[in-house]
Inverse folding.
């Protein structure tokens, strides 16, 4: 589903990722971890082409991301649901509309039912008509999660999905993500929060000083 | 579609002052163009009958025989640039003079002899009433036998001809200028609206929105700005027209006859719609994500 071959990424002079190679298979759930500033978000951005690699090759599903035509980028992104670390909610749209926009962009039908179902999964059905700015951090984060899962994408990229949640809510959200994965969706979770993968049997990819250290399941 | 529609409504409502300003600016530019166009149009109507009224006056020598007159009339009638020829004898000329100039009878009373010459009035075909050809025709006629003098309103012919030609050039020039202005207003307004939504657009792109999806609402906004500007211009033109006709018309009577061709209403809306769309297309096309 996601293949990185010798990927190198610079920001100006800063070499964030040096020669990263890995493969994530369809249906897998993989953790990407590493200290803050190690390049986890950058790695995810390379997958949905918010950033371009300086060297190497990236393949996502049927898309050769590295030399994708600009007109194809939207179609790559529609295969992916991103839980952004910085939320990226649209402030002048209600919670409902923020989730619905994901379906509208994909030209889907039966939007209302799908949106309400997604909001129910993150326990925000009652906040559908609120605007993001009055929501708590944890509530906003769950809106982002609802928006990422509502379109039932093939791949979900979760960037610190539990950063603003209390332990109980975090567990519930992780359970939800696991369920979605069990239905066949490939999931990549970027987090520095060890608690999330302490007892997991899943693969963990660690980035340290720009190098990749693959760890088998513990 | 529902997103597009809502986005348009929001764009119009949330940035209402920018939009109102823009509509007023487009409206005023078009109003200026419309008023000029209507005045020029009316000038053309007013002058279109002038060539028919326009005539050369050919004064004859006093000693010219009846045969000489007849052959002269025949000769003039056979010219391809002439549409009508009418002979006025000395007494006809006097009657005409008394008719047109009030008080002429008293002026002429003391004279024993009729001081006026007999003359032939020559009406020219419309196409020949330009300064140059009238002059040529007059020169040719002067060469004929038995003619004292050929008189024609050089100044009038020249002026009308010049005004007609230049008013056409002025209309085309103004139309181009105003079109560019309207496109520019639509362009800058849509660009402002676009930048104000930059953050939202960035998010939409990350979620997989195509350029078309993002640009469509802005193009509609440009179209609406254009249409509203056109409607505002027509509304104001109507008011100016009524003022000219019924207020100024009572003072300066030529404005009483002013005509407002109704075709100008749909035409203005269509043109301003197109200009609005062109402006917004340039605006969104230039901004790359
Ligand atoms: N657009 C950018 N321009 C320049 N430098 C950047 C940019 N984005 C990120 N960086 C730098 O690249 C490095 C990696 O950033 P990144 O956001 O990928 O880290 P991260 O692992 O996600 O960190 P965190 O755990 O805090 O979210 C950081 O040092 C950051 O300052
Ligand atoms: Mg990060």
């Amino acid at each position: 589903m996601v293949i990185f071959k010798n990927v190198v990424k610079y920001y100006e002079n800063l070499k964030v990722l040096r020669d990263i190679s890995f493969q994530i298979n369809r249906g897998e759930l993989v953790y990407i971890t590493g200290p803050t500033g190690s390049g986890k978000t950058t790695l995810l951005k390379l997958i949905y082409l918010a950033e371009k690699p300086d060297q190497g090759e990236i393949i996502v599903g049927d898309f050769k991301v590295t030399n994708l035509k600009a007109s194809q980028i939207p179609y790559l992104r529609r295969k992916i649901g991103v839980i952004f670390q910085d939320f990226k909610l649209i402030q002048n749209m209600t919670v409902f509309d923020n989730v619905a926009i994901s379906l509208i962009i994909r030209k889907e039908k039966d939007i209302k039912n799908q949106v309400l179902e997604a909001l129910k999964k993150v326990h925000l059905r009652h906040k559908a008509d609120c605007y993001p700015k009055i929501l708590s951090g944890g509530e906003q984060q769950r809106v982002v999660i609802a928006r990422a899962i509502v379109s039932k994408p093939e791949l979900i990229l979760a960037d610190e999905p539990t950063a603003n949640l209390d332990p109980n809510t975090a567990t519930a959200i992780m359970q939800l993500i696991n369920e979605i994965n069990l239905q066949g969706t490939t999931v990549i979770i970027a987090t520095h929060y060890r608690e999330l993968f302490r007892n997991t049997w899943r693969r963990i990819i660690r980035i340290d000083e720009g190098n990749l250290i693959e760890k088998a399941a513990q | 579609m529902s997103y597009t529609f809502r986005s348009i409504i929001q764009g119009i409502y949330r940035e209402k002052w920018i939009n109102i300003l823009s509509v007023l600016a487009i409206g005023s530019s078009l109003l200026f163009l419309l008023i000029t166009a209507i005045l020029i149009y009316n000038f053309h109507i007013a002058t279109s009958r002038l060539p028919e009224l326009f005539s050369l006056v050919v004064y004859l020598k006093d000693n010219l025989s009846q045969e000489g007159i007849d052959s002269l009339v025949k000769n003039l009638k056979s010219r391809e640039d002439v549409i009508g020829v009418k002979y006025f004898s000395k007494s006809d000329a006097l009657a005409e003079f008394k008719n047109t100039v009030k008080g002429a009878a008293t002026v002429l009373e003391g004279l024993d002899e009729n001081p006026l010459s007999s003359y032939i009035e020559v009406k020219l075909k419309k196409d020949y009433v330009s300064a140059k050809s009238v002059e040529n025709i007059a020169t040719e006629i002067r060469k004929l036998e038995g003619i004292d003098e050929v008189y024609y309103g050089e100044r009038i012919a020249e002026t009308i001809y010049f005004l007609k030609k230049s008013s056409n050039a002025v209309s085309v020039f103004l139309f181009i200028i105003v079109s560019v202005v309207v496109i520019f207003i639509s362009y800058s307004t849509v660009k402002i609206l676009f930048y104000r939504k930059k953050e939202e657009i960035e998010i939409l792109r990350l979620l997989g929105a195509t350029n078309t999806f993002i640009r469509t609402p802005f193009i509609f906004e440009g179209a609406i700005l254009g249409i509203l500007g056109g409607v505002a211009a027509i509304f104001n033109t109507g008011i100016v027209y009524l003022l000219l006709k019924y207020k100024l018309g009572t003072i300066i009577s030529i404005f009483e006859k002013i005509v407002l061709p109704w075709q100008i209403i749909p035409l203005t809306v269509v043109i301003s719609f197109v200009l609005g769309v062109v402006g917004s297309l340039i605006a969104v096309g230039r901004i790359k994500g």
